[in-house]
């Protein structure tokens, strides 16, 4: 259980969790980019619908990249919550619409766990960092 939900006692633990959360955010961005490519090269979609979908997916991709960047820079409490909410919404819609398989649900769960641990690391950073700065000064 320590691997799935780690304890944050040192800055190294926090940095590792934030790095993992950043990688999870980049994987979410890559999956969104893959969806954009499917829309771009899909054949059965009208031109107006394709343009609207590409604009929406492009905006979502930019938001995911912005949230991931803020998250990995230790300023990610709000960005991490927004990234998690966006990914949970997208995952929920894929599961409800039936466009996913059981294997992808496990991938989604792993990504959600990585982002949640990153959020926990952000809160632990706010708790541990001031004490570490004082310890480094003296």
Write the layout of secondary structure elements.
Blueprint: H1 11-41, H2 47-72, H3 77-97, H4 102-137
Helix pairs in contact: 1-2, 1-4, 2-3, 3-4
Number of strands: 0
Over the alpha carbons, how many angstroms does the gyration radius reach? 18 Å
**Largest beta-sheet characterization:** none
Mean pLDDT: 85
The CA-CA distance between the termini, in Å, is 36 Å
Q: Quick summary of this structure?
A:
The chain is 83% helix and 0% strand.
Task: Describe this entry's structure for a reader.
There is one protein chain. 83% of the residues lie in helices and 0% in strands. The chain is elongated and about 60 Å long. The termini are far apart. The mean pLDDT is 85. With 138 residues, the chain is mainly α. The protein has helices at residues 11-41, 47-72, 77-97, 102-137.
